[in-house]
């Protein structure tokens, strides 16, 4: 039982596999409708009167519209995919009118065709994608009109349309059967060349153009001559003349690149065009000497070969003129056949040799131009006093030649008439040369700028030096990334996705390293603003001490307690910074609280004596000495002293301040008064009065100075200043 179950399960698996295989095979062989991005966009939106969901609806709509003379409306039943959007309205109406006239000439019964199509629609649901409308064979011309199911990818509509083959054939059928005009025969085409080789394929404009270029690029100009209509050339001269014309036309086509092979019609009768006869097809137009020259192909018919497309006689007649504008003169006419027949990677041997010659000549010319431009730059730089411009001229030696080499390759590639692929490769190589030259130049400029920023004068700013080094490396890395991305873009690699990924990755890194980046920018701010240097005594948000180290992440300060405080650069850059080391002098600002019992004369004498002391001291800045009775304290009479000691050294300042303090103390004692203390005294008995003799002496001295003008209150006189300090005190000021 187990064995039977296993066998049954295996059979089921194999049956399922076979069913899938059969379904896939049927699906692969099922016909699919013709797909268009949009059906006839040049005609505008489909009118409501146009019904084309079934073959019979399309036939009835086409016939009724044409019978009413509404040929533009009937054009909605044609597949005009090979017609330019701007021409679809006019060409569609013309083709509709010719088809209707042809059907009337062939005496088509429209009702009978409608019934046959209705009967055929029963098979449409089973996957039929094309339905025959009408077959004819008249006056030696046969053909068939049919509808093909076409899908509009934009709207999703499925429409039954006359296919592009019918659109292409309509003009020729009309000419043959309605107008009675025959096409030129191919039996007399190029009789002097003999029969066309089997490799010559000329059944459509696209096939004929591709066949001509393939034979010419292989150096088989005799074969390529069969694609030219040489009816204006004597048969005896056609072999030599045809070879020369084929060679020249190839070079003109390569040089101008006006023809896009994929845009040419692959239909046997071409594509209808305004103002162009039915047996002509315009490939492109070439501008030469201010006028437009059309490149035209001509259709001939042969009973055995069928339709034969060749370059029309009028185009062949313009070849010499076009070659005179875009050719290479005698060089192109007499290049050895080996140089034209041997090809590698789509390029002929002469083109490879010319590329090598162009690379060498371009490099030599670029170096000559570089030397001339640098010599001119040196002459200009010598006339200036600065040195940076001389160094800037030197950095261009080398990179400038590479950039100019890349620029010179562009005209070289145009002159060589390369194939589109080869020209793209040369132009991309030229872009890469220019990008590498620009990157090399930027590298040197970064080095020059960095060397000028890191000067001996920046020895006290290691942040600036470190930042300059790091920033130089960052800029060089950025240049490398930009050159690489530019090179990839020049090579045709899409870098948009890479840049988007780089942006997302950079955003993630920025979030992860937010504090580090903040500190780095803080270092940039400190290096640019330079609020302090190594060895400066500073106060950074309450942290007071000497700057001992400055890095890309933090600043280290040694405090008076000999502790080392580390402050992140982001905080230091935004903090309130007091730099004591940049002072040109130091403030001496004691406040003297004299005893409340000090008399007015004693107070005035003390102020006078202190002013005399400060004026006479050469270590005090003389212009801003202030000694004032500031006011009354809780238990004192306060005198404020404002003066600046001419030193920036803290140790020297404290020595001067100490000496001044002793002298002021002596002045207060000699005035017979003293310093008050913030205490309260309760008198149970009368306090001892000051020494009457000392107080009387102070009163007498104050009176004498007032009377003799020897008094510093409110300000000393100039004579008193000169007597107290006989020499210029500014001479004693320390140098900056």
Distance between the termini: 112 Å
Low-confidence stretches: 1-31, 456-460
Category from helices, strands and their pairing: alpha+beta
If helices are DSSP runs of H or I spanning 4 or more residues, what is the number of helices? 24
Major sheet, described briefly? 5 strands, antiparallel
The residue fraction in helices comes out at: 40-55%
Going across the biggest sheet, name each strand in turn. 13-12-11-10-14
- Estimate the global geometry from the Cα principal axes: elongated
* Overall pLDDT level: 80
- Rg is 51 Å
Q: How much of the polypeptide forms β-strand, as a percent range?
A: 5-15%
What does this structure look like?
By secondary structure, the chain is α+β, with helices and mostly antiparallel strands. Among the domains are: 1-30; 34-178, no CATH class; 191-341, no CATH class; 586-679 and 688-732, 2-Layer Sandwich (Alpha-Beta Plaits), CATH 3.30.70. The strands form five sheets. The protein has a five-stranded antiparallel β-sheet. Strand 2 and strand 3 form a beta hairpin. Helix 13 (349-382) packs antiparallel against helix 15 (399-415). The longest helix is centred in the middle third of the chain and has 34 residues, at 349-382. It is elongated. The chain starts with a helix and ends in a 12-residue tail after the last helix.
């Amino acid at each position: 039982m187990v064995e039977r179950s296993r066998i049954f399960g295996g059979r089921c698996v194999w049956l399922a596999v076979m069913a899938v295989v059969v379904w896939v095979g049927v699906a692969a062989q099922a016909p699919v409708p013709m797909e268009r991005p949009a059906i006839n966009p040049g005609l505008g939106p489909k009118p409501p009167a146009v019904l084309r969901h079934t073959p019979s609806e399309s036939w009835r709509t086409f016939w009724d519209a044409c019978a009413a003379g509404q040929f533009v409306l009937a054009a909605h039943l044609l597949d005009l995919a090979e017609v330019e959007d701007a021409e679809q309205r006019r060409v569609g109406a013309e083709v509709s009118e010719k088809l209707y006239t042809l059907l009337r000439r062939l005496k088509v019964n429209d009702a009978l065709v409608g019934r046959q199509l209705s009967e055929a629609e029963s098979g449409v649901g089973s996957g039929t994608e094309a339905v025959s409308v009408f077959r004819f064979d008249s006056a030696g011309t046969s053909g068939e009109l049919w509808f093909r199911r076409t899908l509009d990818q934009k709207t999703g509509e499925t429409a039954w349309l006359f296919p592009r083959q019918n659109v292409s054939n309509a003009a020729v059928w009309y000419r043959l059967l309605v107008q009675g005009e025959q096409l030129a025969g191919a039996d007399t085409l190029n009789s002097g060349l003999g029969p066309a080789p089997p490799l010559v394929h000329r059944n459509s404009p696209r096939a004929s153009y591709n066949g001509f270029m393939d034979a010419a690029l292989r150096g088989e100009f005799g074969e390529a001559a069969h694609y030219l209509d040489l009816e204006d050339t004597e048969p005896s001269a056609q072999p030599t003349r045809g070879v020369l014309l084929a060679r020249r036309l190839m070079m003109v086509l390569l040089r101008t690149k006006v023809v896009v092979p994929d845009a040419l019609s692959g239909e046997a009768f071409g594509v209808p065009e305004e103002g162009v006869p039915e047996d002509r097809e315009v490939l492109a137009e070439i501008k030469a000497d201010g006028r437009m020259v059309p490149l035209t192909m001509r259709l001939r018919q042969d009973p055995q070969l069928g339709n034969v497309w060749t370059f029309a006689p009028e185009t062949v007649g313009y070849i010499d003129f076009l070659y005179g504008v875009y050719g290479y003169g005698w060089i192109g006419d007499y290049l050895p056949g080996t140089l034209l027949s041997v090809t590698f990677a789509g390029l002929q041997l002469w083109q490879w040799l010319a590329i090598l010659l162009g690379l060498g000549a371009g490099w030599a010319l670029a170096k000559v131009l570089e030397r001339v431009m640098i010599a001119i730059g040196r002459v200009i730089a010598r006339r200036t006093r600065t040195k940076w411009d001389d160094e800037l001229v030197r950095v261009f030696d080398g990179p400038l030649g590479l950039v100019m080499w890349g620029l010179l390759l562009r005209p070289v590639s145009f002159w060589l008439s390369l194939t589109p692929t080869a020209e793209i490769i040369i132009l991309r190589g030229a872009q890469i040369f220019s990008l590498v030259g620009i990157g090399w130049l930027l590298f040197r400029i970064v080095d020059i700028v960095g060397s000028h920023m890191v000067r001996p004068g920046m020895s006290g700013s290691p942040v600036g030096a470190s930042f300059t080094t790091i920033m130089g490396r960052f800029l060089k890395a950025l240049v490398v990334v930009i050159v690489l991305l530019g090179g990839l873009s020049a090579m045709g690699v899409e870098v948009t996705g890479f840049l988007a990924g780089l942006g997302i990755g950079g955003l993630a890194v920025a979030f992860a390293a937010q504090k580090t980046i903040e500190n780095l920018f803080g270092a940039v701010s400190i290096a640019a603003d330079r609020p302090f240097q190594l060895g400066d005594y500073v106060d950074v948000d309450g942290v007071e001490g000497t700057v001992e180290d400055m890095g890309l992440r933090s600043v280290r300060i040694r405090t008076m307690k000999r502790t080392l405080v580390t402050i992140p650069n982001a905080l230091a850059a935004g903090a309130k910074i007091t730099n004591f080391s940049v002072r040109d002098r130091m403030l001496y600002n004691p406040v003297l609280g004299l005893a409340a019992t000090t008399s007015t004369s004693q107070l005035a004498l003390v102020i006078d004596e202190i002013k005399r002391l400060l004026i006479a001291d050469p270590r005090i800045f003389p212009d801003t000495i202030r000694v004032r009775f500031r006011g009354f304290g809780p238990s004192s009479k306060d005198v404020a002293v404002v003066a600046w000691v001419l030193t920036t050294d803290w140790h020297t300042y404290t020595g001067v301040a100490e000496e001044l303090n002793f002298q002021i103390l002596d002045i207060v004692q000699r005035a017979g008064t003293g310093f008050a203390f913030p205490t309260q005294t309760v008198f149970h008995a009368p306090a001892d009065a000051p020494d009457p003799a000392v107080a009387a002496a102070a009163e007498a001295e104050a009176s004498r100075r007032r009377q003799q003008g020897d008094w510093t209150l409110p300000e000393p006189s100039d004579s008193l200043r000169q007597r107290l300090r006989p020499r210029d005190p500014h001479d004693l000021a320390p140098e900056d």
